[in-house]
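Protocol step 4 of 6: structure prediction from sequence.
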Amino acid sequence: MFNKNFKLILAGLIVAYAVYQFIEGNIGNGISLVLLAGIFVFLYFRNEMILLAFLRMRKQDMAGTEKWLTKIKNPESALTPKQQGYYNYLHGIIYSQKNLTQAEKYFRKALKLGLNMDYDVAMAKLSLAGIAMQKRRKREATTLLTEAKKLDKNNMLTDQIKMMQQQMKKI
């Protein structure tokens, strides 16, 4: 919605006005303005369109997720590198149902840019392993599966990993 630098400038102006409110003795106004500036700083690190896309993803609404992602114009300049990673991660999930080659490209780019959570990295590697397995690249799939297994600290993906390993034995 707003440029990332514009968010920081806006937060700085709001903090400056909050300091003015503190000097004038309007403590309540100053506190609320500092909290408002905190929202803009938060949105600098977490893009609002990506947050809304994740909400649509939680409801299994792929069309809605894609709609929110297409509202981000020129993601290279509008997003920080980690946000670009999640932007590509979401695109990879969407395209994993449509076009495997495109999904593989998006997942690889997301891993290159970086993802914050180990679970997300494990999920991306697991998806890449599935794509490699479908394209008959068994060696690459096994390495990606072992990396995903190492990253899955909460054992949330163990069932999927075991299922893929069983399918791997059939190949």
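Step 5 (inspection) to follow. Residues 146 and 161 are 9 Å apart (CA to CA).
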